[in-house]
Amino acid sequence: MQLFGIIGHPLGHTLSPLVHNWGFSRYGLDARYEAWPTPPEDLPAFMERLRQTPIAGASVTIPHKTAVMAFVDEVTDLGQAAGAVNTLYWRDGRLVGDNTDVEGFCRPLVMRGIAPRRALVLGAGGAARAAVLGLTRLDSGVVGVTARRFEQAQALAREFGVLAVPWDERGAFGADFLTNATPMGMAGRFEGVSPYPAQALAPGVVAFDLVYNPYETRLAADAAAAGGTVVPGLEMFLYQALEQFRLWTGRLLPDDELRSLLLKTLYGQAVPRT
């Protein structure tokens, strides 16, 4: 049996085992996917275990996406460009670090024919990196990045050759496309909070909120009320997972079936696709 899993800390209620074990079962593959909570100080020991077991592949999440790059034999061009990897697999006896977050971000936009002319990314962390890189790969017109700590936005903007926008001026940027890569709007203490002023939302704006719990965030509700289009945050998780499964198995999972499974698991019902 091939063994796969996810490393991160904390892992909480990760959906990755559900996704990949469903995929293995669907194709009748002799494989299992587990959750491996891994504090930062345990990362070196885990990477040694990965080579010795051997573990066939792994998902990597916070806080290891950058640190794990020092423990692999090769980082793909996409992983290098993103400055982070979220997927590990073996190729010709070498351990490879790759990034499927960028694919997860881009695929929903391409499928919907969304071509941003003036895009603004809210946040400057790992998810924001994937969003900025994705937007540059899609040849979006003008791309800006903003964060509460302006120096973080400036650092990210310099790295990718985009604009740094002061947080207090984000509403005046005139974005026709917004990506929320912050925790604002997430279930818990941030629920009901939007990272973007509602009065700055114009008809036709596209809001891609990477938060997917709750299904409709405050930003999504505000954008819809303004006459805009909403891309649900679950789409990025869905398509990055599909790409991981393809890298590990060479098989393509049906996105509609997996989307229905995730919607039922997360929200208890089949929420209509936006």
UniProtKB/TrEMBL annotation:
<comment type="subunit">
    <text>Homodimer.</text>
</comment>
<comment type="similarity">
    <text>Belongs to the shikimate dehydrogenase family.</text>
</comment>
<feature type="binding site">
    <location>
        <position position="212"/>
    </location>
    <ligand>
        <name>shikimate</name>
    </ligand>
</feature>
<feature type="binding site">
    <location>
        <position position="101"/>
    </location>
    <ligand>
        <name>shikimate</name>
    </ligand>
</feature>
<feature type="binding site">
    <location>
        <position position="233"/>
    </location>
    <ligand>
        <name>NADP(+)</name>
    </ligand>
</feature>
<dbReference type="Pfam" id="PF08501">
    <property type="entry name" value="Shikimate_dh_N"/>
</dbReference>
<dbReference type="GO" id="GO:0009073">
    <property type="term" value="P:aromatic amino acid family biosynthetic process"/>
</dbReference>
<dbReference type="InterPro" id="IPR013708">
    <property type="entry name" value="Shikimate_DH-bd_N"/>
</dbReference>
<comment type="pathway">
    <text>Metabolic intermediate biosynthesis; chorismate biosynthesis; chorismate from D-erythrose 4-phosphate and phosphoenolpyruvate: step 4/7.</text>
</comment>
<dbReference type="GO" id="GO:0004764">
    <property type="term" value="F:shikimate 3-dehydrogenase (NADP+) activity"/>
</dbReference>
<dbReference type="InterPro" id="IPR036291">
    <property type="entry name" value="NAD(P)-bd_dom_sf"/>
</dbReference>
<keyword id="KW-0521">NADP</keyword>
<dbReference type="InterPro" id="IPR022893">
    <property type="entry name" value="Shikimate_DH_fam"/>
</dbReference>
<keyword id="KW-0560">Oxidoreductase</keyword>
<dbReference type="InterPro" id="IPR041121">
    <property type="entry name" value="SDH_C"/>
</dbReference>
<dbReference type="InterPro" id="IPR011342">
    <property type="entry name" value="Shikimate_DH"/>
</dbReference>
<dbReference type="GO" id="GO:0019632">
    <property type="term" value="P:shikimate metabolic process"/>
</dbReference>
<dbReference type="GO" id="GO:0050661">
    <property type="term" value="F:NADP binding"/>
</dbReference>
<dbReference type="GO" id="GO:0008652">
    <property type="term" value="P:amino acid biosynthetic process"/>
</dbReference>
<feature type="domain" description="Shikimate dehydrogenase substrate binding N-terminal">
    <location>
        <begin position="6"/>
        <end position="88"/>
    </location>
</feature>
<keyword id="KW-0057">Aromatic amino acid biosynthesis</keyword>
<feature type="binding site">
    <location>
        <position position="77"/>
    </location>
    <ligand>
        <name>NADP(+)</name>
    </ligand>
</feature>
<dbReference type="GO" id="GO:0009423">
    <property type="term" value="P:chorismate biosynthetic process"/>
</dbReference>
<feature type="active site" description="Proton acceptor">
    <location>
        <position position="65"/>
    </location>
</feature>
<feature type="binding site">
    <location>
        <position position="210"/>
    </location>
    <ligand>
        <name>NADP(+)</name>
    </ligand>
</feature>
<comment type="function">
    <text>Involved in the biosynthesis of the chorismate, which leads to the biosynthesis of aromatic amino acids. Catalyzes the reversible NADPH linked reduction of 3-dehydroshikimate (DHSA) to yield shikimate (SA).</text>
</comment>
<keyword id="KW-0028">Amino-acid biosynthesis</keyword>
<feature type="binding site">
    <location>
        <begin position="14"/>
        <end position="16"/>
    </location>
    <ligand>
        <name>shikimate</name>
    </ligand>
</feature>
<protein>
    <recommendedName>
        <fullName>Shikimate dehydrogenase (NADP(+))</fullName>
        <ecNumber>1.1.1.25</ecNumber>
    </recommendedName>
</protein>
<feature type="domain" description="SDH C-terminal">
    <location>
        <begin position="233"/>
        <end position="259"/>
    </location>
</feature>
<dbReference type="InterPro" id="IPR046346">
    <property type="entry name" value="Aminoacid_DH-like_N_sf"/>
</dbReference>
<feature type="binding site">
    <location>
        <position position="61"/>
    </location>
    <ligand>
        <name>shikimate</name>
    </ligand>
</feature>
<feature type="binding site">
    <location>
        <begin position="123"/>
        <end position="127"/>
    </location>
    <ligand>
        <name>NADP(+)</name>
    </ligand>
</feature>
<feature type="binding site">
    <location>
        <position position="240"/>
    </location>
    <ligand>
        <name>shikimate</name>
    </ligand>
</feature>
<dbReference type="Pfam" id="PF18317">
    <property type="entry name" value="SDH_C"/>
</dbReference>
<feature type="binding site">
    <location>
        <position position="86"/>
    </location>
    <ligand>
        <name>shikimate</name>
    </ligand>
</feature>
